[in-house]
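Subject: two folds for Thursday's group meeting

Dear M.,

Sorry for the delay on this. The cluster queue was jammed most of the week, so I only got both jobs back this morning. I'm pasting them in the order they finished. Each block is the input sequence followed by the predicted structure tokens. Could you check whether the formatting survives your parser before we put anything on slides? The first protein is the one we discussed after the seminar.
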Amino acid sequence: MYSLNFESGEHSVINNTFKITLNNITSLIRFTDRPDRLWSPINANQFTELWLNEDNNSFLKDYPNAVLNIDGELHVIELISCKNINKVLELEIKIISDKLIPKIFSNGSLFVDLNKTDNGSPEVQVAIFTTKILELSDHLKKHKKDDHSRKSLLRLVNQREKLLNYLKKKNINGYDNLIKQLGLRK
């Protein structure tokens, strides 16, 4: 799931196409549901790339549902496309709920459903391992003598490396996209 906050926005209809513009995006994060409950911050470019990729996790093939919270009023929408132009998100949407979205609105939030329960693919496993590695690295900075956590960290790094090597052999484009999304070195 993805979550973001914004300071202002506007809604328009152009040629029977509903559009929303969200300004001053803050706190853009990706998080997973139970049992992992992992999260990581992402930037607006990484968010918009979800509509550009043509892999299995692309929103281009399966538009996600979302909840737009404007001043406490919830609007259920489907996100057709997303563009990041000068730190402003432009979203093409389909309105699912019966409530009308105001033409101009102030701060609010957007929650985007992944629409997938995928946690077994190599790409998702690498992302889960990366989040756990970051958490353990932070823990070890505070607790330098925690040898058990250090061994766990090394085991996770090795598992992630094996998965990345597998992915590199089987799907080089997926590997390149994943490396870029997670900010990893090749």
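Second protein, same layout:
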Amino acid sequence: MFDFEKLKDHPELLDNVHKELKSNKEFVLECVSVNPLCINYIDVSLHKDYDIAKTVIINDPSAYSYLQNDEIRKDKEIAKIALLIDGLSLRYLTEELRDDEELVAIAMAQNPMCFIFASGRIKFFHFEGLDKTKLHIHLDKKGFYTFRLPTGKMSSTQEKLFKNLHILENPSWFLSLVFWIEFKFNQLLNFFQKD
């Protein structure tokens, strides 16, 4: 009888397990349920198994980076599971999935700070407020982020807020914070307006 509890701290114990067990789906499902890092020690044939990948992600969304099968790594449903649990898992997705607007929206709904991991094409925000406009963020040739509205003009409030961001080498963290504060403020405002 195998002691699965030992896998919590030592997934490498699977190295000493017979190959037949490491290719047994039920056994592997139990192992990755205890410790998702066990996926690194299972038989290669099971790396393409959807149920095993799903169990790994449910138990630890950051273990997405350990999924070795390209077909599984590109699976949108597996990515959704990871993002619903932890939006910051967006950083582990393939470039193609980080360019999927639906997945980025799911991730940002779970954790607005994850936008910095979205593809360059979809790094934009919807700011509630004065003009209901989109603020586009672009990485220029010098490695600086530039900000512009589709009209090319900013309201005075927006101008004050973003006036000096061009001097920051990477203002993503600041914008993430601003977005998160605004998101929480709007939630609070909506809560009190319901009464």
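Two things I noticed about the second structure. The chain has nine helices and three strands. The two ends are 59 Å apart (CA to CA).

Cheers,
T.
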